[in-house]
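Hi all, long-time lurker, first post. I run a small reading group and we've been trying to get comfortable going from sequence to structure in the token notation. Rather than ask abstract questions, I figured I'd post a concrete chain and ask someone more experienced to write out its structure so we can walk through it together at our next meeting. Sequence below, copied exactly:
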Amino acid sequence: MAEFVDVNKGDILPPLNQKRQKKHSFRKFSRLFLQIFFGLILAVVFAVSGQTLYDFNRYRAFYVNGESMYPTLNKNAEAYAKGNKVATKTYLLGDFSSPNHQYLCDYGLMDEKEGFLSSLQRFSIVVTYFDQDMKKNGDVYLPKSGSELKIKRVLALPGEEIYFDNGGELYIKREGESVFQLIEQPFFNVDPWNEESKDFLLTVKKETNLASKYAYDEEHPCRLGDEEYFLVGDNRLRGCSNDSRAIGPVSSYSIVGRVVTIIGKCWYQIDQNGKGQETIDFKSLIMPWGLELL
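-- Answer (accepted) --
Happy to help. Here is the structure in token form:
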């Protein structure tokens, strides 16, 4: 029978013990590898979760009431009539103001900390009041009683000029420049949308552009002041957004925060006193690694 020598001890071990030692060493190595691997995974998960908890402390939650930002926001919002378990798609219902319905809508986080205005870029999404919703109190502006927040997209920045043509195309003259430039609007790209959304957009493009009923055409562009922004809703072509086309530029003091991400959905309804109430739908919350920045 073949034998081998353990050079460390000089003992002669049978082949069976040799195989057992190798198998034991492999198992020990495997356990160590799995411990390290899963330890790293847990470290990443806790780090991401910790960042999310930090975000909840840093950021303020908001819900999306209405369809002015459809299909970017509230793309899959639903309405349930009282006593009815059958959902209705809401993208043609306008604001969620019926006391006879309960709405399942997007729920997200916004950055409202000091200095957030410096992070605003073209096409940023913001939570805002309109200037007519505000009143001056000493050196600060505060929202009037009963004023409601809106969610809009930044199209033009301070110091710029803006207008739309009859087809809804966007033209911007940047500060310091002498000519207007056509600006692509990537949020109108239909490629990543589902078939329902594609049909919606194609129908919109065939309809009369409601933006042409407003001011700010090629002959009468809107010129923004140093602290003014031009804010609109993505659903404007169907006439489902009241925005800067009608009310004019929005001052920086009216803007509450920059939308960061959508974290899930919430239930929203109007109570008997006409006030809105929202409740998080915990089943819809998105895991930290699945969040998308807006």
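A couple of things your group might point at:
Helices lie at 15-58, 195-206, 244-247.
The first strand starts at residue 4 and ends at 5.
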